[in-house]
Design goal:
Blueprint (H helix, E strand, L loop, with lengths): L1 H5 L6 H16 L8 H9 L14 H12 L4 H20 L5 H11 L2 H8 L1 H18 L3 H12 L30 H11 L10 H7 L8 H8 L3 H23 L4 H20 L4 H6 L1 H4 L1 H15 L10 H22 L1 H4 L12 H5 L3
């Protein structure tokens, strides 16, 4: 995906479609990848398009999508292909005008694990997230009617997307104060609060909201919370990158001046994501709520990689902060991906194709 998008005219929709086609083909042919794989598979195979009506399990937009696919006779791998294609296409289509960004965003998408873990688990919510990214165009243009329409479509796929409506206000938010260097302390402050346990005092206030958004099934089992909340070496590396991005955001926007407004909004949403991810990492429910913001990590990291690459010193003995940070981000992302591969079975992320039926028993043991 990285090399194809890098050496093609990535601004053209045909090139974007080909890049997304590669990802969707692999993800569409998966079997047992993702904790929710079997639920989505069984739901689709048992779906009766002729008797479809709205219920508490399936939102109307997603139900309509399944009905259309069933009517035209799509198999479940073809249906997963379509979902994966839509998940990534709207994101890359939105970012294509940031010159040179698509290859690095694709690279970050895979290496952060978002493309192989998040997008194969919370399938409907990640599709809604993709539509949310697309809707940022209308925040930039201050077109509330079009923004409202896209968010309502996203809500018809996963009702939690309704909470994204107020973020249209970012069309009028000035982030000058968020570009000050003092903001670089945010990642460190969040880690300190996490260790102090103060965030647990606030979790009870979210019960009603969580129930409405449909996340009440994600029970915060204490043994799982302990695993999620534990701080690892990769988290420290991420905190360093986050700090570097905050310190550089003004120059990043200047580098991509024509898309400065879009980057401003992405930065704001990403900032919400890293705060929520750190403060509430002990809550499975709130982690799902904040997925709309934490998923901006791969976009922001991709843009930061591009920014450091554009300022990369080509001198033989030239060593600059940009060079060091470019290598640091790359090493961190590849380290993260290596860790994912080592623990793939615990994420059900170890991959097999749907036609490898002799390996089904291995995947069924992970349920």
């Amino acid at each position: 995906m990285y090399y194809i998008s890098k050496y093609s005219m990535s601004k053209k929709e045909s090139s974007l479609c080909f890049v997304v086609f590669i990802y969707a083909s692999v993800m569409g042919m998966r079997y047992g990848v993702g904790i929710d794989f079997y639920n989505y598979k069984d739901l689709y195979l048992g779906w009766d398009a002729s008797e479809y009506k709205y219920n508490d399990i399936v939102e109307p937009g997603y139900g309509l999508l399944m009905s259309v696919c069933k009517i035209v006779g799509l198999s479940y791998p073809a249906f997963f292909f379509l979902l994966s294609f839509l998940q990534l296409f709207f994101i890359l289509f939105t970012l294509k005008n940031i010159n040179g960004s698509v290859p690095y965003v694709c690279l970050s998408f895979i290496l952060t694990g978002i493309g192989v873990i998040s997008f194969t688990n919370g399938i409907r919510q990640c599709l809604s997230f993709s539509l949310f990214v697309y809707s940022l165009n209308y925040i930039c243009r201050r077109s509330f009617a079009k923004y409202l329409f896209v968010i309502l479509v996203a809500t018809s796929i996963h009702k939690s997307a309704l909470m994204l409506l107020p973020f249209y206000a970012f069309a009028y938010v000035n982030i000058t104060f968020l570009e000050k260097k003092i903001m670089a302390f945010i990642p460190a402050i969040c880690i300190f609060i996490m260790f102090s346990g103060i965030e647990n005092e606030f979790l009870g206030y979210f019960d009603t909201i969580i129930f409405f958004l449909g996340y009440d099934k994600y029970l915060d089992r204490s043994e799982m919370m302990d695993v999620i909340a534990s701080l690892g070496f990769t988290d420290i590396l991420y905190a360093i990158i986050n700090t570097a991005i905050i310190l550089s955001i003004k120059r990043i926007r200047m580098t991509f001046e024509k898309q400065s407004n879009l980057i401003r909004i992405i930065y704001l949403l990403w900032l919400i994501g890293i705060i929520g991810e750190t403060l509430f990492r002990g809550s499975l429910m709130l982690q799902r709520v904040f997925l709309y913001f934490t998923s901006f990590k791969f976009i922001m990291y991709g843009l930061f990689l591009l920014y450091t690459r554009k300022n990369y010193s080509k001198k033989i003995y030239g060593i600059s902060g940009y060079n060091l940070m470019f290598y640091f981000v790359n090493v961190t992302l590849y380290w993260r991906f290596f860790r994912i591969l080592c623990s793939a079975s615990s994420y059900t992320a170890d991959y097999i194709f749907f036609f490898q039926e002799d390996l089904y028993i291995y995947k069924h043991m992970q349920i």
